[in-house]
Specification:
Elements (H helix, E strand, L loop, with lengths): L1 H7 L3 E5 L20 H8 L2 E5 L4 H5 L7 E3 L3 H9 L4 E3 L6 H10 L4 E3 L10 H12 L4 H20 L4
Parallel strand pairs: 1-2, 3-4, 4-5
Helix pairs in contact: 1-6, 6-7
Amino acid sequence: LAEGLEESGIFFIWVIRPPFGFDINAEFKAEWLPEGFEERMKLSKRGLLVHKWGPQLEILSHKSTGAFLSHCGWNSVLESLSQGVPIISWPLAAEQAYNAKMLVEEMCVCVELTRTVESVISKDDVKKVIKIVMDQEGKGKEMKEKANQIAVYMREATIERG
């Protein structure tokens, strides 16, 4: 993931949580990332790495947020779509793969990085999905338009008599 983000050339915020097999409350360890990655991102000012937790809805609601790499848990899906932000799916457990499938095949607001947690992800896979979702002309533009329309529907549904 880190190598694909770096090679994609995009600006990003990455909330880094402990990998599988580590305590969810574990302190960040530099070995979780490629050597020198965090320092290169600081110097380039392209990547902001946040350890453990970040204000997800606040980040998603910022106008410069172009996409959201998500496990596709339902709350994350709702937060992303309520802000008109297309999704890159990487489901991990429970119903997440079903949510991702619906977002890709039915709603057309998501591009799939992988469908299962067991999949091996390459930096080229990461760059490919970033290029698709951030495309200002083709599929990325269509996904953004659909996500924005869903955000409108969600707002309308929550107003009085909506």
